[in-house]
Amino acid sequence: MRQILISLCLLMMATASRAELVVEVTQGVSEPSPVAVVPFGWSGSGALSEDVAKIVEQDLGRSGFFSTLPRESMLSFPTREGDVYYRDWRVSGADYLLTGRIEPTADGQVKIDVGLYDVLKEQRIPLANDIVNSGSGQLRDAAHYISDQVFEALTGLKGAFSTRIVYIQAERNGDQNNYKLQLADWDGARPRTVMESNEPIMSPSWSRDGRKLAYVSFESGRPAIYVQYLTTGKRERIQSFPGLNGAPAWSPDGNQLALVLSKDGNPEIYVLNLASRQLQRVTHHYAIDTEPTWAPDGKSILFTSDRGGQPQIYRLDLESRNLERLTWEGNYNARGRLTDDGRFLAMVHRPTGGNFTIAVQDLKSGRLDILTEAGLEESPSIAPNGSIIIYATKQNGRGVLSAVSLDGQVRFRMPSRSGDVREPAWSPYLH
Amino acid sequence: MEFRGYILPTILATLLHVVILGALLTHWVGKAEPERSMPRHIQAKMIDLEALSQQSSQSAPPPAQPDRQEQERAQQREEARQAEQARQKAEADRQAKVKAEEQAKAKAEAERKAQADAEQKKAELAAKKKAEAQAKQKAAEEAERKAQAKREAEAKAKAEAQAKAKAEAEAKARAQAEAKKRAEQEAAAQAAKAEQARQQAAQRAESVVGDIQSYINELLRRNWRIPATARNGMEAEVSIRLLGNGEIDQVSIVKSSGDAAFDRSAVQAVQRTERFDRVAEVDPILFERRLRSIRVVFRPEGLRW
């Protein structure tokens, strides 16, 4: 009996010692992955209008997920797989490598042949489309498209480089004010005017399908809410009540608009059914309730209210009418925007004794992180993939747009040629 | 335990001894008296006639009183001679008388002695008879006692034998148990020794493996770039096959975190490491057993989210 026990024990120990060694790694380096975007080859005549590789490099670098290898550090400029010497790229410190070859096609278009490589694994990473056809005038679009593909292949997240932003640009010409609703690439390139007025334009908001904008215009002398179709340019005034009409926000299903009206005395949140034009008041408080935004599931509305004495962000469940205060840190939290997964709340945050900053709060843990240095930041808007927050700030007394990655690691400024820029709104995915 | 069983025999034996002692005491007392009354060596042998005559001649002169010289002397001599004769005669008479007395006395003595002897004999006989009877009784008693003793002895012997047998059996059993126990202890001690040796070896191996474990952890930690998509609670498990020189032969995800970038970062951490040099220093058998194939769990802690 004893011997059996002993031999059993030994057997168990023997089998236990056969178990594989397990190493647990709980710490690492929180650095973006280095990517080398090699200048794309061009086999056509003349020079191309855009440096496609440069756009891709900038896209990836600004996402906060990647750092890019400067071209000066590259030992070679391969344009096809056969020319890639992994060892060299490994030495350069790149984890990934992107090569490209642009060729003119018979119909005057171009064909871009790209290759993404895992330098450490010494393997090519397949992309959804290795070959991108583009008009020679749409090289920026092609570049953003390539960026989206690379981003998705490497992070698993859908890239938001082909999305757009709108913002308000105000200029003063002589003694006249000029307001423009501008539409641009996500990086601020290629701006174009959607609507222009001598009276203030405010609070642009994208519909979920990315085809319409709602905004407040004072063109009639008093604030009114308009909806404008981007493709056709057609616009309609959908609501105008006495007093304040402001801050329209599209519901996720696109059928409703949350807005702020003061027709009943003081600013309250209302929900307007766009089809039936039925208006429903959802907040009832003598304090100011404003800046509504929809939760991604459309079941609740977040808004700013000073009912607690200072502006704070609250969540109202539309069905149960339960009200919940979400922010507790600092004496000013306003203009909340949720990521598409509903987890992170970006907002204008003023810490006690501080200035206005952009902060993000993890609604799961309650943790709040300040992403920008104290300034006069306002109007955060989040990229549809949740990776970047764009916001307005002041530079030399002039309004400019800046962006910061959600983890606060990468910040960059949008180019702005002139005027005061404010109230950026990031589009949803456009295709 | 069997003390009670010995009480009766002990009392009986004691009683018997007392009885025998009593009997013997009367015997010893009875016998002592006749011996003491026996005057066998008192007077008879110490008679010396010569010494007696000299004694009488020497003691003669005092009565012969010398009157005149010769006559007196002759007379005296005569007188002396006569006196001497008379004395001698008296002496002889006295001697004869003494002798007769002595003889009579001896005779009486002999008679007395004979009588005493006879008495003594008689007494002795009686004593002897008595002693014999006593002896007989004693013998009978003794026999009885002996028989009793024998019975007792037998019983005792039997009991003892039984006890002895029992004790022996017990002792045997004990000895066997002891031997068995000893054997078991020895076996256990040997097993323990073997186990200890094995454990020591295992401990040594374990400490080597532990070292390698933290070494691998350190290298991977330096080489793991946690992607921005990583969240606390994510976990990816990677299987690594090593070559004897510490080089990484194969690496693959065995348990995905559900996040492609996270999984890739885990694999890349291993690939970026390229080789675990110190693995080459490990004993080949231990390497084969424990390090040829290892698993790494990547589980970030303390991330912002």
Automatic annotation (TrEMBL), chain A:
Repeat recorded as keyword: no
Subcellular location as annotated: Periplasm
InterPro entries: 6-blade_b-propeller_TolB-like, Tol-Pal_TolB, TolB_N, WD40
Pfam families for this protein: PD40 (PF07676), TolB_N (PF04052)
Record key words, sorted: Cell cycle, Cell division, Periplasm, Signal
Signal peptide positions (record): 1-19
This protein's record includes keyword Signal: yes
GO biological process, one term: protein import
Domain TolB N-terminal as annotated: residue spans: 22-124
Transmembrane feature ranges: none
GO cellular component: periplasmic space
Superkingdom of source: Bacteria
Known role: Part of the Tol-Pal system, which plays a role in outer membrane invagination during cell division and is important for maintaining outer membrane integrity.
Subunit (UniProt): The Tol-Pal system is composed of five core proteins: the inner membrane proteins TolA, TolQ and TolR, the periplasmic protein TolB and the outer membrane protein Pal. They form a network linking the inner and outer membranes and the peptidoglycan layer.
Family: Belongs to the TolB family.
Protein name: Tol-Pal system protein TolB
Automatic annotation (TrEMBL), chain B:
Major location category of this protein: membrane
Name of the protein this chain belongs to: Cell division and transport-associated protein TolA
Keyword line: Cell cycle, Cell division, Membrane, Transmembrane, Transmembrane helix
GO CC term (a single one): membrane
Transmembrane segments: 6-30
Record-linked InterPro entries: Tol-Pal_TolA, TonB/TolA_C
Chain positions covered by the region annotation Disordered: 53-194
Subcellular location, record wording: Membrane
Record-linked NCBIfam families: tolA_full, tonB_Cterm
Record's compositionally biased regions (Basic and acidic residues): 67-185
Any one of the GO BP annotations: cell division
Membrane topology of the entry: Single-pass membrane protein
GO function term, MF aspect, one: toxin transmembrane transporter activity
